[in-house]
Amino acid sequence: MQTPILLRLPRYDDVAAYTGFLANPLVTTWLEDRCQRPVLFHQAQAFVLGEAWCRLAIEFEGRFVGMTGLEDYDPVNSVARFFIVVGDQSVWGKGVGTAAAIRILDHGFRALGLRRIVSNYLLPNEASRVVHQRAGFQIEGQQRQVAWRNGAWVDQTLLAVLRDEWIKRNSA
Ligand SMILES: CC(C)(COP(=O)(O)OP(=O)(O)OC[C@H]1O[C@@H](n2cnc3c(N)ncnc32)[C@H](O)[C@@H]1OP(=O)(O)O)[C@@H](O)C(=O)NCCC(=O)NCCS
After folding, report:
1. What is the secondary structure of the chain as a DSSP string?
2. CATH number for the domain including 166?
3. In the structure, which protein residues have their CB atom closer than 6 angstroms to any atom of ligand 1?
């Protein structure tokens, strides 16, 4: 059974919590380079509440635990890029990331009309690998030495899910 989560529109009171999430190096290490420096309240606010094509708050057991969504919408090719941050470390390993990924992919394909959803993760991010694999992403390639983390250059895995394979896989 899928972990019960709620995806909802982000609110102002999520910003302080999100700022706190991004102060945890265990959360930020495998995120983008811009998250490797301290992320201030107004920067978190710009992300949580700023203009976005599809950016939603994740709630688990009644509280805000992270953000997920679809960005970089390409209307010519019906493509967007998936992202996920479960920033509340206390809920890791309970299926929240997988449930949120499945929900947002289903929304992207069935409600938003996407044809292809792409994603990427830095190779040592094992939890992200598991979430992408469980959600049905296929690996399309690997870019070498993309980012400097923990004293070494790390590779990045590129992935995608296609609408056809999603519908086939998720039809009852
Ligand atoms: C990646 C992330 C979304 C996963 O969220 P989550 O709620 O813990 O995900 P789930 O519980 O659905 O699944 C994670 C799985 O990975 C496993 N896992 C986590 N770390 C692991 C590791 N180092 N080695 C092996 N497995 C690991 C968990 O045990 C779990 O599997 P299980 O159900 O068999 O126990 C979350 O850790 C996160 O947001 N991290 C910080 C930001 C980030 O990395 N975002 C993704 C950027 S691409």
Report:
1. -PPP-EEE---THHHHHHHHHTT-HHHHTTS-GGGSSPPPHHHHHHHHHS--SEEEEEEETTEEEEEEEEEEEETTTTEEEEEEEE--GGGTTSSHHHHHHHHHHHIIIIIS--SEEEEEEETT-HHHHHHHHHHT-EEEEEEEEEEEETTEEEEEEEEEEEHHHHHHHH--
2. 3.40.630.30
3. 27, 30-31, 84-86, 92-98, 121, 125-128, 130-131
Structural domain boundaries, residue 32: 6-170
Residue 165 in any domain: the answer is yes
User: What pLDDT does residue 172 have?
Assistant: 66
pLDDT digits (tens, 9 = 90+) for 76-131: 999 999 999 999 999 999 999 999 999 999 999 999 999 999 999 999 999 999 99
Ligand 1 atom nearest residue 92's Cα: 8
In a domain, 1, yes or no: no
Quick one: pLDDT at residue 1? Answer: 85
CA of 63 to the centre of ligand 1 (A): 19
The count of domains in the chain is 1
- pTM, entire model: 0.97
Whether the predicted pLDDT of 69 surpasses 80: yes
Q: Name the residue at shortest CA distance from atom 35 of ligand 1.
A: 93
